[in-house]
Amino acid sequence: MGVTINGIGRSVPKRVLHNTEIETMIDTDSNWIIDRTGIEERRVSEEEKSIDLAAAAAREALGDMDYDSIDLVIVATITPDMIIPSMGALVKKELRLKNAVAFDVNTACSGFLYATWMAESLMKNSVSINANTNVIKRALVIGVERLSRIVDWTDRGTCILFGDGAGAVVLELDSNQEGIISSFIKNYDDDADALICGMEYLKTPFTKDEDTAQTLKMHGTKVFRFAVNAVGEVMEEALKKANLTADQIDHYIPHQANMRIINSAAQRFNQPLEKFQISIDKTGNVSAASVPMAMYDIYKTGKVKLGDLVMLVGFGGGLSAGAIIYRA
Questions:
Q1: Handedness of CA 112, 184, 190, 269 (dihedral sign)
Q2: Do 8 and 185 form a contact (C-beta atoms < 8 A)?
């Protein structure tokens, strides 16, 4: 029995922010941004909340499915609208998914990989012979971010990179399909605080904590080195677990963080860049929403055919990384 992808959706804010506009905000150059990252533009929210983006992507992924058939909702995000309720609970309420168990996952840009890995495990366990738990036959997995809210728009090292948006998939147990073949997830300690975002709490009569800013901070060189190594490791391990070679994968859908990282992965595994979905030029880095948004883009082109082998690859804060191989 396999866990298959049975629906994909995407939602982005209306506001397009091009590199040339960022040139007017900070000391940078559009051509330099493109050369260093591959990003030409990104979307930023002016009116849309995370729940608006998440719900819209979910509705498209669900299509004409029976909403009552959704047993599980997992939302991957680092920019929820609020701490309580969770984004998962907000999606459940907004879409009236009366039978769904809902919660969030925070592993930054790896979030969608972790959420999918968790959903698959829960689904397969729920229908095992000795399971004594909720039966989960259909799950909604969403990645959603409003990174524009936590970016320092005076820091040219980070503000050029990030965008807002949401991507969603519906996972379904299918006794006749192979679906997800292998997953490999790994965490790495961020000893150098290469990628962090603090939390701003209210002052109390008791606290002695130092002030922290809820602003994304990144040491670009250290994150780049980590990403190149981690991507290679998780891809190799996922291939090994699936007993496959890189040549056998028909499509690679990587986290859209930087074109140089994607190029590095293609070169390391001696794969043509044409096998890698590239969406970063129009989206920037959308953290946990990056991979499902790129999935949506490649499926809309019609490139992914029934029976194709697809690898999803993500990496992010924590530090964290993961890869999933599935048969379309």
A1: negative
A2: no
What Å distances lie between residue 182 and 137, 167, 327, CA to CA?
Answer: 19, 22, 10
Judge whether 287 and 111 are in contact, CB under 8 Å.
yes
Q: How far is residue 50's CA from residue 101's CA, in Å, rounded to a whole number? A: 19
Place of tokens 């495990």: 121
Strand locations in the chain (E): 2-11, 15-18, 41-44, 72-76, 101-105, 138-146, 164-174, 180-187, 195-197, 216-218, 251-254, 309-316, 320-327
What pTM, to 2 d.p., does this model score? Answer: 0.94
| SS3 assignment, position 296 | helix
Residue ranges, comma separated, of all CATH 3.40.47.10 domains in the chain are: 2-178, 181-327
Q: Is 285 a catalytic residue?
A: yes
β-strands 251-254, 309-316 pairing: parallel
Given the residues 6, 109, 159, 258, the one annotated as active site: 109
CA distance 2 to 175: 6
Class of the CATH domain delimited by 2-178: alpha beta
Please indicate whether residue 18 is annotated as part of the active site.
no
Predicted confidence band of residue 130 (pLDDT cuts 50, 70, 90): low
Report pLDDT digits (tens) over 192-242: 888 888 888 888 888 888 777 888 888 888 988 999 999 999 999 999 999
109 is catalytic: yes
Tell me the residue type at 70.
I
Distance separating alpha carbons of residues 288 and 12, to the nearest angstrom: 14
Of 35, 118, 23, 37, the C-alpha closest to 75 is: 118
Protein fold of 181-327 = Peroxisomal Thiolase; Chain A, domain 1 (3.40.47)
- The DSSP string of 163-218 is -EEEEEEEEEEETT---EEEEEEEE---TT--EEE-------SS--PPP----EEE
DSSP assignment letter at 79? S
Written as one letter, the residue type at 144 is V
